[in-house]
Structure formats: structure tokens, C-alpha cells
Automatic annotation (TrEMBL):
Origin superkingdom: Bacteria
Domain DeoxyPurine in DNA protein A, first and last residues per copy: 2-260
Protein name per Swiss-Prot or TrEMBL: DeoxyPurine in DNA protein A domain-containing protein
Amino acid sequence: MRFYLTTHKRHWVRLTKVPLFLKSEHFTSAVTLPEALGPYAIDSGGFTELQNHGRWTRTPRQYVQDLRRIWECVGPYDWAAPQDWMCEDLIIHGGTAGPLTFVGTHLSVEEHQRRTVANFLELRSLAPELRIAPAIQGRKVSDYERCLELYDNAGVDLNQEPIVGLGSVCRLQSTLEGAAIVTAMAAHGLRLHGFGFKTLGLERVGHLLASADSAAWSYHARRRPAMPGHTHKNCANCLPYALQWRQRVLAGLPTWHQPELAA
């Protein structure tokens, strides 16, 4: 299981060999891009897009252009997420969660799934040479099974894909419901990536995942004093803290986790 550190600090790719997970938009505004020292994967930023706008504001063609520039300038990435449509209630219906406000798409789960599959097909058509991964979405096990059928009907064999993103489980990962979804999808033989997994979710179903990413280290750091010798208020944007947090998480998991990479 490859465990990616999620960060908005694009320059970290030239500072560590630890796998990183970065949103594509963190690269698009830069005049020059850093060359990656180690493995990394690209998030499409769908949660932010749908939260703030209730739709995608970037066209598939624009997204492909961004991915090509990242590949050429930063280096080959492991894979890039599609412009998928998450199925969490807040994304669909809108509302508030703490300081966050969600516009809501006001579409059905079925429509989100249809658009997710359609987008993957379009991206694959526009850029067959890029490592764009399919994603499956839903709210319960039967939804995800239906999403698999949509891919199958479109002629996409998910079992042949190097990685398949498992969406809309971030807030369910440590629950029995979330575990049931991961278990059911893993039973199909898919190499799953768990978006936004935290420690409890990894402890419960991490052995069923090919990879996962997490930004929980930053949330953790914001609520604690800075590391000794650090002058900032907290370490929410601090690479040394993130690397130590990752090591602690992996050390606390069963022995199925990946061998460590040098920082």
C-alpha cells in the first residue's frame, strides 16, 4: 500500500522521496515548476470545485493541458484523478459543515455517477497517453456496484486499470458502512486508491487498498504547538512534521504497509 502525503506545497516534490498527493491547480498558476525527486500523484480538485461552484469550472480539455504540462515539467506522475463527481450529501444537497459552505449540485447520485464515467471516457479519449485513473462513486454498496456496471457497459475493464479511485468514502472510512463499501469493491479484484483516508480507516481496511492519501497531518498539526526549534505558530505547513506524522502512522499499522522510502 502506497501512502501519499497530501499537501498544497508544490515545492515539496523536490525536497522528499516520500510519495506526495497534490491538486493540479497548485501547479497551474506557477510560472516555473519544480522537478519531482520522488513519486507523486495528482488530484483534480473536484471536492473544492463542486463545493464552491456545484459544477466543474475547468473543461476536460483544460485539465488535460494542465496534466501534460505537469508531466513534462515536474516529471511523470503515478496517476492523475479524473474530474469525477463526489456523492456526499453535502456535495449534492449543499449546506454547511463547520466553516465550509457547500453550494450543492442538486443532482441525483445516478447523475453524478453517469457524469463521472462520461468524464473519464472523455479524458481518456483526449489524452490516452496520460495516466488518468478512473474513479467509482456512490453512497452505499449498491450504488458502487451500479457504477461498476456503468464502466463495464462503456467498455472499460476496471480490473485492467493500474489504480481505481474510490470516491465519497472520506467521511465513512472508519465506519462499518465505509468498511463494507471498501470490502465489496476490493472483492471485485480492483486496485483501489482511498481518497482522504485517516488512521482509523487505514487500520480497518488499509490492507484492501493499493494506495491511499491523507492531509490529516495538517489538521493534526494545527491543534498542537510547533515542533521544538520551529519558529512558526504551528506545523500545519511543515514538511518535517508531515514526514514524522507519516512515519508514526505507518509504524502503527499492521505489517502490510509499504516499505519506507528515504526522505
